[in-house]
Amino acid sequence: MITYKSEREIALMRQAGHIAMLAHEAIRKAIKPGVSTKELDKIAYDVITSHGATPSFLNYNGYPASICASINEVVIHGIPSKKQILKDGDIISIDIGANYKGYHGDCARTWPCGNVKSDRLKLIEVTEQSFFEGLKYARPGNRLSDISCAIETYVKQYHYGVVRDFTGHGVGSHLHEDPAVPNYGVAGEGPILRKGMTLAIEPMINMGTHRVKILSDGWTTVTIDHMPSAHYENSILITDDGYEILTKIKENE
Known about the structure:
alpha+beta; Creatine Amidinohydrolase; 5-stranded antiparallel beta sheet
């Protein structure tokens, strides 16, 4: 069931999104060769809890960390570890959720580490832009799949793989709510977008095939061809005449 958020709920989600993005910014500044993903996890935990929130992912369905830290061919759900050390030329996708007074902000970014090859930087750029191509259709009266179709259409011109096994989702008092938000499909299908809907839109784009597999830990998801992957996500609100991005840093910070 799709829920439509009140002004009170939206205000809490704005704060949750703000906190999640503060954690992203702290991690971005810390990324360099030699840093472990466990160190990045600790940074996020400290930022989130210092602002009166809790990490949305920690213990969610048994997940053991505050962030997902996914390096190179890891698409999503990479578990932070002391043994996982960033190297020059890596790219790392960081997914963060913050729960503020019962409401979630969910957002992901892919960052370069040190000197990164141009083809990997292009993958990051296209993945981010595909989010904004989809966002052009995030307004009342459109269909959900209009967003999905726009993302896939943009990505296909670069011959990248659009992950199909995982999607975006509704977000609010639960980290994952209805509806699912695929990053592929034809336009004109699915629920009609209405004011008060809150969605986590998150293209997951692979340099090679769209096909992925989950490793034996039950979480870590990798490309089957071992080509790199990028991830970009924001939580958004459907407004009277368009959208608002809820996962952003306030201007006075």
